[in-house]
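Board notes, transcribed. Complex of a protein with zinc ion.
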Amino acid sequence: METLKNPIIFQCIKCNTIISDSFFLSERLENTLLFTDAPNTVVDEAVKSVSEDDSLCTYKTLKCLCGEEVGKRYLTAGKKMSSCLGKYSVYIGSIRGYQLGTSAEHPVASFMSIPEICAEISSLQKFCTYLYDKIKGTE
Ligand SMILES: [Zn+2]
């Protein structure tokens, strides 16, 4: 599993404005990253509802200062999307990540979602149990 040493800033892919950074990052949810704040964005006034995924969700469109649509700000969310509530949900494809103090661009899509992290921990637990049994068997 990856450990983040230096903070990462997330920029608009179109104009390079810094939209948010890793201190505000809370989770990856499918093709979006959830941030607790996204300082350089504007939220649309109009409220739209998500019908294809969860009809209980309503959101406002999240835009970069350049006007590019970068994500959604959820106002209401169904059970499945409850972690999005009140957060800034930013499309992975709309941002690029830059890790401070490094010369490489940080791949935004490499962030793991909570279920992925749980799966990693679970397989690690199984491996530890397997090793423990092996060690016990040789005593
Ligand atoms: Zn922009």
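The first helix runs from residue 114 to 138. The beta strands are 8-12, 18-21, 25-29, 32-35, 41-50, 57-64, 69-76, 88-91, 95-99, 105-106.
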